[in-house]
Amino acid sequence: MPIKHTVVQGDSISSIGFAHGIHPDTVWNDPDNADLRALRGDPNTLFPGDVVTVPDKRVRTYVGATDERHRFQRKGVPARLRVQFFLDDRPRADEVYTLEINAVEVETGLTDANGAVEVWIPPSARTGRILFHGGAEAHDLSIGHLDPIDELSGVQGRLRNLGFFHGAVDGELSDALELSLQEFQASHGLDAHGLIDDPTRDALVRAYGE
Question: Could you report the per-residue pLDDT of 168-196, keeping only the tens digit for each?
C-alpha cells in the first residue's frame, strides 16, 4: 500500500526515496504526486508540511545461472552535491578543500575553475562542512534545507547563501531583508524597491543555479 510521507525540514525526494528503497524519479513521477510537482516544480526544494506519496515497490524477477557471479546496481544512489565559492565576486578556483558529511571526512580535493566543489554523497546526508586552509576556514552546510522560491524562507535562504542577507531564515519580513533585497536587485539590474516580485524570484533562481 502506498505511504503518505509528510515532509520535514531537510527532506527531499532523493532522501525520501532512499529511505524507502525506491528510485527518486519513481516517487516524484507517481501520479499521486502530480499536484505536488505542479506546486513545487523541483524535487529538491520541498517545504515542511508537503505530503509525498511513496508508491509500492515494484518487484522484478531476474533469471540467472547458478554458480555464476551476477552484478546488480542500485539506481538513484548516491546524490550529487554542488557548492560554489567566490571571493570578491571571483571564483575561488584551484583551492584545496576538505569535505565532511555528517561529521565524517569523506574527501580532500581542489575546487574547479568555477570555484565549485562537486561530489557524490548519500541521499540521507543532512549536514556537511567544507574546510579551507587546513580547517582555519569552515563553511557549514545544511543539506536539503533550502525552501521553495515561492516561500519567504526560500527567498531568505538564497539571499543568505549568495551573501546578501545575514539574518535568520525564519520566514519573517524585516528591515534587514528589505535592504538585502534592494542590494540584490541593484546588482542584477532590477528596480531596487526591496519587494519580492516575480522578476526578483526569477533572478534569484538564475543566480543560485537551480
Answer: 999 999 999 999 999 999 999 999 999 99
